[in-house]
Automatic annotation (TrEMBL), chains A, B:
UniProt KW keywords: DNA-binding, Repressor, Transcription, Transcription regulation, Zinc
SUPFAM superfamilies hit by this protein: Winged helix' DNA-binding domain
Name assigned to this protein: Fur family ferric uptake transcriptional regulator
Similarity field: Belongs to the Fur family.
Highest rank taxon of the organism: Bacteria
Organism of this sequence: Dyadobacter arcticus
Stored InterPro entries: FUR, Fur_C, WH-like_DNA-bd_sf, WH_DNA-bd_sf
Pfam families: FUR (PF01475)
DNA sequence: AATCCACTTGCAACAGAGTTGCAAAATATT
DNA sequence: AATATTTTGCAACTCTGTTGCAAGTGGATT
C-alpha cells in the first residue's frame, strides 16, 4: 500500500485516496480498464469527473497509456516506468473476443515494417484480436 | 456515378442519394473519415442520424471498416471487396501527426508475431503514427 | 499542531457522440 | 399506378467526456 504512495510521489503527484484507489485497481486487475470500469469499481466513492481527471493526470505523467479497440477507449499501466518526457511508444495489445478483456503483451517487439517511400514512422501500435489462454 | 449504384446493389442495398453521396465521399477523399467529417461534407443535405445509420449499414455490409487512433473513430473503404461474411481482417493504418490524416496502407503484410503460449490470433490491426509523404 | 498556499475534489452545467421510436417519404416490384 | 418494404427526418434520449468555480485537502513550513 505504501508502494502506491511511492509511485505517485515518483511522478510528482500528491497522494489522494482517489489516486491511490485508481492506481491500485490498475495493479490488481491487470487488464486494460475503461473509465466505466473504474466508475463501476469505485463509483460510489468518487465523482465521475474526478476519475476522468485522475486518468488524464496519470496519462500526462506517463503512468498509464491509452489502449484502443473497436469498442472504445481503455487505459493500461505503462510497463517500464515512463515519465512525462520519455514514453515507451510501441505497444502490442491483445483483445479476447470471448471474455472481452484487453491485455498488454510485454517483452515482445513489433517486427519491422517496410513502409512505402516518404513515410516516417514514430511509433507503432498493434492490436491483435483472438482468443486468450483463459478462454481457449 | 453509375459505379456507385453498382457497388450498393452488389451489397444488396437500395440506392439512395445519401448512400451514394457518402460512398462517393469515401472514394474521392481517400483517407479515413469520421462521422463528423461526413457531416461537414454533406451535413446540409442529410440528417446526422441518417449519416450514422448509413455508416452502420456500410459496416455491416463490409463496404467500410473501422479505423481507430487516439483521437477517435473513423471509417475507411475496404480495399478488396469484403462481403457480409468474408472480411479482410488485417489492416495497417498510418496516421500523420502533422496533417492528422489517416490512410490505409495497402499491399503490405503485417509480419508474423510470436505470441506467448495459449494466445490464438484471429486478426491484426497495426496503427503507425508519424509523418506522411505530403508533410515530410 | 496550527497556518498557509497550491492542488484536488465535487457539483452543476455543458458539449459531443451515438442510439431509439415513430410517422412520413422514397425505393423497388408488380 | 399501386403496393409492400426500406429508408429518412425529427424529437428525445443516453453515454462519454469537458469546463468553471467554490469548498475541501495535502503537505511543507513555522
Amino acid at each position: 500500500m505504501d508502494q502506491l504512495r511511492e509511485t505517485l510521489k515518483g511522478h510528482q503527484l500528491r497522494t489522494t485516496t482517489c489516486r491511490e484507489d485508481v492506481l491500485s485497481t490498475f495493479i490488481t486487475k491487470k487488464n486494460a480498464l475503461s473509465h466505466g470500469d473504474l466508475e463501476g469499481a469505485l463509483g460510489e466513492n468518487y465523482d465521475r469527473v474526478t476519475i476522468y481527471r485522475t486518468l488524464k493526470t496519470f496519462l500526462e505523467k506517463g503512468i498509464i497509456h491509452k489502449v484502443l479497440d473497436d469498442e472504445g477507449l481503455r487505459y493500461a499501466l505503462c510497463s517500464h516506468s515512463c515519465s512525462e518526457e520519455k514514453h515507451q511508444h510501441d505497444h502490442i495489445h491483445f483483445k479476447c473476443s470471448e471474455c472481452g478483456e484487453t491485455n498488454c503483451i510485454e517483452n515482445l517487439h513489433i517486427p519491422a515494417v517496410q513502409l512505402p517511400m516518404g513515410y516516417q514512422a514514430q511509433n507503432f501500435n498493434l492490436l491483435i484480436q483472438g482468443t486468450c489462454p483463459k478462454c481457449s
